[in-house]
Amino acid sequence: xxxxxxxxxxxxxxxxxxxxxxxxxxxxxxxxxxxxxxxxxxxxxxxxxxxxxxxxxxxxxxxxxxxxxxxxxxxxxxxxxxxxxxxxxxxxxxxxxxxxxxxxxxxxxxxxxxxxxxxxxxxxxxxxxxxxxxxxxxxxxxxxxxxxxxxxxxxxxxxxxxxxxxxxxxxxxxxxxxxxxxxxxxxxxxxxxxxxxxxxxxxxxxxxxxxxxxxxxxxxxxxxxxxxxxxxxxxxxxxxxxxxxxxxxxxxxxxxxxxxxxxxxxxxxxxxxxxxxxxxxxxxxxxxxxxxxxxxxxxxxxxxxxxxxxxxxxxxxxxxxxxxxxxxxxxxxxxxxxxxxxxxxxxxxxxxxxxxxxxxxxxxxxxxxxxxxxxxxxxxxxxxxxxxxxxxxxxxxxxxxxxxxxxxxxxxxxxxxxxxxxxxxxxxxxxxxxxxxxxxxxxxxxxxxxxxxxxxxxxxxxxxxxxxxxxxxxxxxxxxxxxxxxxxxxxxxxxxxxxxxxxxxxxxxxxxxxxxxxxxxxxxxxxxxxxxxxxxxxxxxxxxxxxxxxxxxxxxxxxxxxxxxxxxxxxxxxxxxxxxxxxxxxxxxxxxxxxxxxxxxxxxxxxxxxxxxxxxxxxxxxxxxxxxxxxxxxxxxxxxxxxxxxxxxxxxxxxxxxxxxxxxxxxxxxxxxxxxxxxxxxxxxxxxxxxxxxxxxxxxxxxxxxxxxxxxxxxxxxxxxxxxxxxxxxxxxxxxxxxx
Amino acid sequence: xxxxxxxxxxxxxxxxxxxxxxxxxxxxxxxxxxxxxxxxxxxxxxxxxxxxxxxxxxxxxxxxxxxxxxxxxxxxxxxxxxxxxxxxxxxxxxxxxxxxxxxxxxxxxxxxxxxxxxxxxxxxxxxxxxxxxxxxxxxxxxxxxxxxxxxxxxxxxxxxxxxxxxxxxxxxxxxxxxxxxxxxxxxxxxxxxxxxxxxxxxxxxxxxxxxxxxxxxxxxxxxxxxxxxxxxxxxxx
Lengths: 740, 237
Known about the structure:
heterodimer, A: seven-stranded mixed sheet, seven-stranded mixed sheet, 26 helices, 28 strands, 36% helix, 24% strand, B: alpha/beta, Rossmann fold, nine-stranded mixed sheet, two-stranded antiparallel ribbon, 21% helix, globular
């Protein structure tokens, strides 16, 4: 059936994406030329996507340890102890390129992939969050992408039965040729029942479970093989096709097999499919694996060993079972109407042996496959940076009418309501969601405990573009601040690093700087990074995206009942601004929306002040002193106050006096870290003041809720006086008017 | 009262119903696998939400022909009660246990949102503790919830007072804007002529605890359990 595989040469290796040096390294370590299937293994496992060649050296700078950490980076997902014997398992991943080629399936399979990462750990997924970035909405192509991505996420997440509870959507022209689809998943597991992707126990059976293998998704590097195989004229697209129903069955079957004690180790067949699992699982355990590829369930005929190893068909797992538990595995998967086929054994000796009908097609030390080269190439700040930073936004004219300027900003698609998106997602299945999408963080209860989890994802490409180090640190702070505003203590971080091509020194510089910024902020806030994902090559025709680290933070609320949301709850509440009043129009949403400029310097970031402000907010929420708490981010203080007024069930007015020392646009719309708005009912004012004094943070009262207008003053001068219904209309229609 | 929550491949509201029945209502409850036919030890069978068999053919079409649904016919004939929510409602229609069909939402998108249900018929096992015109708050979460029945079936539904819930405004008016999916005459839930089989698109299990934003979903169960006092004082609780 199968024709003789092509002869392996340096040219072929190059076509597969390996460099001459890498190919040399392979041949000298093997002591021979690799076979065709082996070349495929190396090409896939040594690809940037799998091996993090350009990023590993930097990623090691991130703090990954802490007293609560049960599993740091290196597994399918990270795990954090949340008390009472429970652990939260979470990770964020990108599916940017597939989503651009085929938005619906690209986004859907992005959801599928991250769900599997969570449930291979033994955790039941309880929440999804999506951070999306697109080009400007006046381009009909963008609208098509938004529709496709949102409906793909909706289809997969809803059918699978995991609620989508948060995330963010933002628009900037730099994402037009490269949208970002980052999906975070959060799961719960008993802390002593976490499963890992390790092939322990020589002699243990290796099971292939789940969907059948097809030629779909045989990836970038390996697509080169088609030129050597004229019969493969019908090249399948590189985007995989998802099946959320099968994924749901796989979830139930895997959790049931784990509960039955039949599972030793398990890994999702994600990128590089079977090749990745059969090498990584034994590599982690210091074992080997011997697998018979003809036993792999296939839905196409005549697949070559190369194709079987490298297929990225969805909804599949490799499972190492305990010896003697084979029938249990088969029975459980049969109950869920899924394939579970024993394809091999765990072996001693540290080699991956792949056979086709008995004949060895690959025999490679797994340690060699796992030992891709690590590159630290020179970095250099981009040449254009100095000019961008030198730009002073205050050289631009002030808006003629601040009320209109605020309305325009509330109607920015990046700031306006995303209800159009979220109403397409099931937000409640599992009946855990205490705070639905629309506040700073989503809050989910942990049944059987008094606790809840708060989750937020954040990132600001413009900030990172202007100052990768501070911008990335600010993203960590913002995500953590959102979680703190709900009352929860941040306990863990996952990061999705979306950047351009690492082959360019300025992109490497952005990346290295951003990692340093994340590391500094995580150290200062004492939140370890327990997993994440790097997505390079986000560029089209040499035009890179804004460098966009998306930060996901998970926090723990000790008392689920003591939580806060961002909107004002009624009239007569005193409103306070906590934190430093440092802000800047540099890289702000206002600067872009009003003036189409991207430049200037970011506001300073004082990590110690940030830590204290967050601690103060948490203390105030957990003491039940505040009726609302809201982080100030895109759009600045004025937008944060406007959101406090109109994002709740009933609009609530506000009169506030802001810092009179700066220019109006700077005070109203300048963006900066470490600022939180809270509302306090009069009887609690004194207690609140005492708590703030104790917290030793800068803060002051700025106004009182009530009425049906938002009135903002600089000193005694009223510069905004707008009816709430106008603000609400602007905010509600800002995004949705583009999608009608 | 003994409850059974049916699990099809692809069901996902099963755990939620199980939780509410056992932890909130403190009633005995067990899961019922879709291949089972023996329902003798049950008083009420719940068909929960989800995507049974992926809803790949048509929502509820495959599940509607499963062994457990087949066994429901006898179960209902013997006086058993059935509550089908979301996918469960679709399955009951596909199986012919309730008339009509659920079609793709008029907006052609999935909808997850809070809805107001106006109670029309209080002479069913599931609504006997409610007032006519009472407004309940419960979320929906579906892509195929547009109820349809042909004119004759609709006449019969009305004649036999089988329409139990309609989507309405918070003040009880049944309006076009309150209809989230384009359902015929805002129909959100119907019963069989005997009032023992209820199908509705909204999710009562998601409105069963104050923490989840509404407890109106409990009223259906409490009606069923007969735990409601005749004068309606439960409403004040």
